[in-house]
Amino acid sequence: MVDERKTECGRSTCRLSGTRDRPYSRIISRLLVTRAVPVGGLAVWFSLTLVGICSAETFKLMDALAFAYETNPQLAQARAALAALDQGVAQANAGWRPSLNATTSYGYDRATVTGFSTPLETHPVVGQVTLSQPVYRGGQTYAEISRAEQLDRAGQAQLVSTEQSVFLSATTAYADVVRDLALLDVAHDNARALDAEARDVHTEFSAGEVTRTDVQQADARLARARANEAVSESQLAASRAEYEDVIGRPAETLEKEVGLPSLPGSKDAALQIALKENPDLNAARASERAADFAIADAVGAMLPQISILGQYQYLHDAANESVFGIPAEQRVASVVAQLNVPIYQGGGEEAAVRRAKDTHEQAELAISTAERGVRQNLDSAWETFHALEVAVAADRAQSAASQSAVAGMKEQQRGGERSVINVLDAQQDFFFAETSLEQSLHDQALAAFRLLAATGQLTAEHLQLRVTLYDPQVHYNDNANAWFGLGK
Predict the structure, then answer these.
(1) Do 166 and 430 touch, CB atoms closer than 8 A?
(2) What ranges in 72-139 are assigned the alpha helix state H?
(3) Domain of 89?
(4) What is the CATH number of the domain that holds 380?
(5) Number of domains into which the chain is organized
(6) What kind and span of H or E run contains 434?
(7) Contact 437/395 with Cβ under 8 angstroms?
């Protein structure tokens, strides 16, 4: 069969990662040729072989994505970066809260006074506790908290973008191995067919039915087929190495064909989803809101600020520190309301406001850039996917026709109507058709996942992977409003 892609083991479908699936009758016939198998034990041997072939559990694409989701270091790094942004919210929240400081000092003073023969010696002790509570900071606290929250939301969107990037890399690595396994099997089948054809030509040459040129042409095509086998094996080895690097484990028993994900029914529907869920666009929007709050923060530095200061002092033998200038032991408590009105600080605050406004304008333009990119990527992904649908159908038809042509050419060559080169050319066309089909299937699968990524839905949650989803809100809730703690 041209597209023999399913081998049934009971009700489950399996594939040996090193060989292409073939009808079991062909496997049995080869083994019977190379080793003696008692006919009475054939049924038992076949049952055990069938169980052995199907015992290896297929490692599906969704399993590979789940494994990458839980182990990929790039994704773990992005989660750690988001966790660091949570601390920015906690730092901003500190602007509402009081600060408490304690200081103490102990010293030795020795003073020589004119008219006194004995120097005066003291051991001053000073202890002080200060409590400061901001009351109004010109709106800076609210602006700083809001800005930090928007930066955190941008970080969440960037985490989704990283997740999609990892999944695209994993899907590509998986599809590359599946394609290269199929291409290696196509190369093997082509070499076997040409080897059989070369043997037939040599036999016919010995009988005087064909010329030496026919023999040389058959041998040349066989040599090229064996070279194709070597190239396919090399490419498969490289794809396996890339797979292990991206997925985090060796390529074992994979699916025979990468299944297509569920996609939106129309381009307009896909665009509406993308404009809402694309992480790059959402990150740009959150960054713009953060830049807007940065303007309010910069303006707040120019406004009056009010705070309340409470202080308790203990002094002993500390005349220089004493409010009343006496060395006796003292305990002093005070509460002060403080108003600070900025008047002119060299123009630095005004420059900060101007810079914040320019940054906000840049962030607004970044939204437009991101939206254009989303529209362009979605349009390209949509058209590419549907073009490859047509290509796959055409390649299937070409492969079927080429296979039939090979059989027809061989029959006509035996009848003297066709030459050896006609058969060799037909076999070559069939090889190219099979190769093109495998490449088109590979490209179509990747185009589907790129289209899903363009909509922002290439995520563990949307794909319903069998994993424990990472919830950034858990770390945020534990840290963004924390008053104490140094973390893990």
Answers:
(1) no
(2) 73-93
(3) 59-97+139-304+347-479
(4) 1.20.1600.10
(5) 1
(6) helix 420-455
(7) yes
Entry field: residues in the chain? 488
Residue 226 covered by a domain:
yes
| Pairwise CA distance, residues 149 & 88, whole Å | 8
Inside any domain, residue 120: no
Q: How far is CA 71 from CA 35, 83, 170, 240, in A?
A: 45, 18, 12, 18
Distance, CA of 460 to CA of 69 (rounded, Å): 8
Q: Which stretch of DSSP H or E encloses residue 296?
A: helix 279-300
Flag whether 12 is in a domain.
no
Cα separation, 66 vs 439, in Å, equals 25
The tally of CA atoms less than 13 A away on the side-chain side of residue 281 is 22
Mapped onto helix, strand or coil, the DSSP state of residue 20 is coil
pTM of the model: 0.81
Q: Give the amino acid at 451.
A: L
β-strands 12-13, 120-122 pairing: unpaired
Q: Per residue of the chain (488 residues), what is the pLDDT tens digit?
A: 334 333 333 333 344 444 444 433 333 333 333 333 444 444 434 444 444 444 458 899 999 999 999 999 999 999 999 999 999 999 999 999 999 999 999 988 777 777 777 777 788 888 999 999 999 999 999 999 999 999 999 999 999 999 999 999 999 999 999 999 999 999 999 999 999 999 999 998 998 888 999 999 999 999 999 999 999 999 999 999 999 999 999 998 999 999 999 999 999 999 999 999 999 999 999 999 999 999 999 999 999 999 999 999 888 877 665 555 566 788 889 999 999 999 988 899 999 999 999 999 999 999 999 999 999 999 999 999 999 999 999 999 999 999 999 999 988 888 888 889 999 999 999 999 999 999 999 999 999 999 999 999 999 999 999 999 999 999 988 888 888 888 77
| Identity of residue 387 | A
Domain contains 447: yes
Rounded CA gap, 401 and 397, in Å? 6
Greatest pairwise CA separation for the chain in angstroms = 142
Task: Please give the structure tokens belonging to residue 336.
Answer: 């002060």
- CA-based Rg of the chain, rounded to a whole angstrom? 38
Q: 248-262 burial by CB neighbour count: b if 16+ within 10 A, else e?
A: eeebebbbbbbeebe
CA dihedral 447, 453, 454, 455 (to 10 degrees): 120
Structure tokens at 62: 């969704």
